[in-house]
Automatic annotation (TrEMBL):
<keyword id="KW-1133">Transmembrane helix</keyword>
<dbReference type="InterPro" id="IPR004245">
    <property type="entry name" value="DUF229"/>
</dbReference>
<dbReference type="Pfam" id="PF02995">
    <property type="entry name" value="DUF229"/>
</dbReference>
<dbReference type="GO" id="GO:0005615">
    <property type="term" value="C:extracellular space"/>
</dbReference>
<feature type="transmembrane region" description="Helical">
    <location>
        <begin position="15"/>
        <end position="33"/>
    </location>
</feature>
<keyword id="KW-0812">Transmembrane</keyword>
<dbReference type="InterPro" id="IPR017850">
    <property type="entry name" value="Alkaline_phosphatase_core_sf"/>
</dbReference>
<protein>
    <submittedName>
        <fullName>(African queen) hypothetical protein</fullName>
    </submittedName>
</protein>
<keyword id="KW-0472">Membrane</keyword>
């Protein structure tokens, strides 16, 4: 009997060739990578630190141009044809059936309507238990008969199966569903001495909701915000980056994504968001009960691109509930009729109801509720929530106006919708809804706060300011982020309770040029020489990037130019001399200064095929050359 020795895998001729080819390809790829990166002003996009430095440099550079120049907030008509052409009327969402079980706070029981028609009811309750953002478990079943209650202790949410005998039917009736409440076992820490009565906070957010979009599609709610609550709606509230995280990181931590640990999924480092300085943690130490409610967990703000949390960041957190209820999103993707419903209730309404229940708990409270399902795919959908939201806000006013800060906000405007193809749509993307109502108690103590807030409605403001404002309202300014853009006189994030200088500019507030709506973007007509030149420069640049891959990547050629816009720094930038008063509130203006750089935005189509690109291109006037960066190009039909 012969014994065969196991053959070493790398001794095989075929495997050796594979290894050599792999190493050679890696070297070629690396060379091509470093080569194309060198041409980008030494920006190594594979290194996070270099991106941070790059952005800081850019801000510092543009601060030299726009410091003290203030912000010309674009005056956009919410009802202009350019945007209303995309409005559609959406029928109300009808959620069928009747949920047998509802929970209120820690008690769940069969609803009277079912009890009055059905006998011999037996319900089996199973807790939906959060393990981590990626995992939850279903607890063991507990049977409860008739009108007896089930008390939530292990989690805030349950899966329920019931059966009984309906009076009009000989067959047994059955119901399966989910319910949410608040487990009785959460006991917030004792507040530090003297901090027992600090104020409460409710932040109610809607995904993809521009200020103008809210005015158009949520007229009743807007009216309640304005006329009943007397909320201040910020006209110069500008995003600081792309997408939901770019708004929520600053609002909830006071920092940008880049300033926080790198927890992107693609880094494969298993780091989670748990050690980031979220406001939830600070407030827990302050004796607050906290809630973070977000729907659509399969595209969660902190889970879609990031590793999510290992432990729930707030006392009350619906991630496990929604993962179970939506079958990890399958309910949504199957496009079933009831995708906007949880049982017999529209999902947005469930979010409002559970937020209301939360506010009725005792002790100090902080809630962040973020509704995405009705705005994410089609902004027109939000209109179905108008009446309920208006009603909710009215109730809020009756009950909580004394001691609760209210913020109703959007994270950014429409991003994928057709409306973004219009100039106004682009600006609306950068100008989300931000409505703030100060608690009465605060107005009595800080007598100038309300006036300052109203004045600040016409000044450039950002998500960083919202974080600073919440801390100020809660008397926790020791946690304020005092970061300043290099060369700036003001902190990046400023409390809205204090006067914000009118001459605050985008770069001083940490807003990069391409997000800054303050600049007046003027249409460049096709007889302007820059119309073709900027488009040609962009096509050249795209070809340049793919040069190393020429064998697989065809040379692109310009098919058409949709539009080109030229950013004129607002007239203030060109004429600003210095501050007129010591506080720097009012600018002193003189003759126009000569411009050395011009920013352009443009949208082009290239062939072969039909790639559509939007980009920011800088023209260095003095040297007659263009500067383009991959970070500032986006392919919009990919
Ligand atoms: Zn968003």
């Amino acid at each position: 009997m012969s014994v065969t020795m196991p053959k070493r895998w790398y001794r095989s001729r075929r495997n050796q060739i594979v290894i050599i080819v792999f190493i050679a390809a890696s070297i070629i790829y690396y060379i091509s990578l470093s080569d194309s990166l060198q041409r980008e002003q030494n920006l190594d996009i594979t290194r996070r630190q270099s991106v941070i430095e790059y952005i800081e440099r850019r801000l510092e550079q543009s601060l030299r141009q726009d410091k003290g120049s203030g912000c010309e907030i674009p005056r956009l008509d919410p009802f202009s044809k350019e945007v209303t052409q995309f409005d559609k009327d959406i029928p109300k969402v009808m959620c069928l059936g009747t949920d047998w079980v509802k929970c209120y706070h820690s008690k769940c029981r069969v609803v009277p309507k079912i009890l009055s028609t059905t006998k011999d009811i037996v319900c089996s309750y199973q807790d939906i238990i959060y393990e981590s953002d990626q995992k939850y478990t279903i607890g063991p079943p507990t049977e409860v008969r008739g009108d007896n209650e089930y008390v939530l202790t292990k989690s805030d949410h349950v899966k329920v199966k019931c059966s009984g005998k309906h009076r009009d039917s000989i067959l047994p009736s059955k119901w399966t569903g989910h319910s949410i409440g608040f487990r009785s076992t959460v006991h917030p820490d004792l507040p530090p001495p003297g901090r027992e009565d600090s104020l409460n906070v409710l932040i109610l957010g809607f995904d993809s909701t521009a200020k103008n979009g809210f005015i158009r599609r949520m007229p009743k709610s807007y009216k309640v915000l304005n006329e009943i609550l007397g909320a201040t709606i910020l006209n110069g509230y500008n995003i600081v980056g792309d997408g939901t995280p770019a708004a929520l990181f600053p609002i909830l931590t006071g920092k940008t994504e880049l300033e926080l640990p790198d927890v992107r999924k693609k880094m494969k480092n298993n780091r989670t968001l748990d050690d980031m300085p979220f406001i939830f943690y600070k407030l827990k130490d302050e004796g607050y009960r906290t809630a973070y409610f977000e729907d659509m967990p399969w595209i969660g703000t902190f889970q879609y691109r990031f590793n999510g949390f290992k432990n729930q960041p707030a006392d009350h957190y619906l991630r496990a509930f929604y993962l179970e209820e939506s079958n990890s999103g399958k309910k949504w993707w199957k496009g079933s009729q009831n995708k906007y419903c949880v049982g017999d209730t529209p999902q947005y309404k469930l979010m409002l109801d559970i937020t209301d229940q939360f506010l009725r708990l005792d002790g100090k409270r902080f809630a962040f509720t973020f509704i995405a399902d009705i705005t994410h795919d089609d902004f027109n959908m939000i209109s179905i929530a108008d009446e309920d939201t208006a009603e909710y806000l009215r109730r809020f006013h009756d009950r909580y106006r004394e001691d609760t800060l209210l913020i109703v906000m959007g994270d950014h405007g429409p991003r994928y919708a057709k409306v973004r193809d219009t100039l106004q749509g682009k600006l609306e993307e950068r100008l989300p809804l931000m409505a703030i109502r100060l608690p009465e108690k605060l107005k009595k103590i800080r007598t100038e706060a309300e006036k300052n807030l109203k004045d600040n409605a016409e000044v450039l403001t950002t998500p960083h300011d919202i974080y600073a404002t919440v801390l100020d309202v809660l008397d926790l300014t020791q946690f304020t982020n005092t970061y300043r853009v290099k060369g700036a006189d003001l902190n990046r994030g400023l409390s809205l309770l204090e006067p914000i200088p009118k001459n605050r500019s985008c770069s001083e507030a940490g807003v990069e040029a391409h997000w800054c709506s303050c600049l007046s973007w003027q249409n460049v007509t096709d007889d302007d020489v820059m119309f073709r030149r900027t488009a040609a420069a962009l096509v050249d640049f795209i070809n340049h990037l793919t040069e190393e891959k020429r064998s697989v990547c065809a040379v692109r050629s310009l098919k058409s130019v949709s539009w080109v816009m030229r950013a004129r720094p607002n007239s203030g930038v060109l004429t600003f001399v210095e501050a007129r008063d010591q506080d720097g509130y009012v600018g002193k203006f003189g003759n126009k200064v000569k411009q050395t750089r011009e920013n352009y935005q443009l949208k082009i189509a290239v062939g072969p095929g039909h790639g559509i690109y939007e980009a920011l291109v800088t023209y260095v006037i003095t040297e007659d050359r263009f500067e383009i960066n991959t970070r500032e190009i986006s392919r919009t039909n990919a």
